[in-house]
Amino acid sequence: MKQPKAIPITYLFFAFSVLLSFARPTMAQERAPHEVHSLNWVMNTAPPFHILNGPLAGQGICDALINVIDAHLPELSSERLVLPQSRIRQQFERKEDQCFPCMIYRPIPGDTIQSDPTHFYYPHGIITTAEKAEVIKKRHGHPVRLASLMTDQDFRFGYPDGRHYPAVQPIMDKAVQSGITRIAHTGENATLAILAMIKKGRIDYTLEYQILHNFELAEHATTNLVFLPVAETQGQHVLGAIGCTNTEWGRAAVQKINQVLPQVRQHPDFLQVLGLWFHDDAESDSYHELLRTRVWQATE
């Protein structure tokens, strides 16, 4: 009886490889981008970034930014969750899929991956009472030398818990070591609570954007709060960006957002809200003119 011929081992290897090619996805399939079906926005109660209540509800800078982005990405659903700033930071550290629309632009990724710049802010300054402002200016100059003020034991500094100030953080960290009185307010409405503490004399000043003082003026016909520029940041500007969790989902979300940002930046609804809060600037050029040079042209 004739014995069957042995099958060459090279043939067996080829057949096995063909079977594997059907059983496993290709490298392109394995590296396919994460599919984004919804933008998961997290927000905090910090006017005029987000305004959740009152006659100006929905007219916050980041409220408008979210609205216009959602309108330009109609294929995606949109979910919004209001959380304290400290909780938002914790969720970024835990890699939960989310996007925060009002971050300071930093091109080096960390717990977040950021979009291209969306707009800009004038630098932080001091918000205090008119009475204390006169004493601060006499002791620490005008514009205020922040490094000098923050080591002055006669003035108590307050700020919302979880808030960071990258441009002057080294000054603040050094001042803490000198034993200054520093009060962090936690929970909802922390930003407005800080202003209320200044008015009541529980703290003496905070470090904030001028737009928060503009919000105070919009909310109250009269106020004893004033804004003082800071010497260390004078003439600078702060770029804003959208930050999403530095995960596969977050990177895909940022890619989609970046695709529509050129149209979003120049959308009339977004520009109208920016004009509402940046009307009282101290620079010779209008905010919209500076927006073109600092953001639009810089990101083309």
Structure, explained:
The protein is α+β, with helices and mostly antiparallel strands and 300 residues long. Helices cover 41% and strands 18% of the residues. It is built from 12 helices and 11 strands. The chain has helices at residues 9-23, 27-30, 61-72, 85-93, 130-140, 146-149, 169-177, 190-200, 210-219, 248-265, 268-277, 287-296, and strands spanning 38-43, 77-82, 99-104, 112-114, 119-121, 125-129, 157-160, 182-185, 205-208, 225-229, 238-245. The strands form 4 sheets. Strands 3, 4, 5 and 11 form a 4-stranded antiparallel beta sheet that branches. Strands 9-6-10 form a 3-stranded antiparallel beta sheet. Helix 7 (169-177) links the parallel strand 7 and strand 8 (182-185). The longest helix has 18 residues, at 248-265. The chain is globular and about 55 Å long. Residues 1-32 and 280-284 have low confidence and may be disordered.
Compact description:
This protein has 300 residues and is of the alpha+beta class.
Low-pLDDT ranges? 1-32, 280-284
Considering DSSP H and I runs of 4 or more, what fraction of the residues is helical? 40-55%
The run of helices and strands is HHEHEHEEEEHHEHEHEHEEHHH
Cα end-to-end separation: 80 Å
User: Number of helical runs?
Assistant: 12
**What is the strand tally?**
11
Look at the helices and sheets and give the structural class.
Answer: alpha+beta
**How many strands, which pairing sense, and closed or not: the largest β-sheet?**
4 strands, antiparallel
Q: Any idea what the shape is?
A: globular
| Mean of residue pLDDT values | 84
Beta-strand portion reads 15-25%
Instruction: Return Rg in Å.
Output: 26 Å
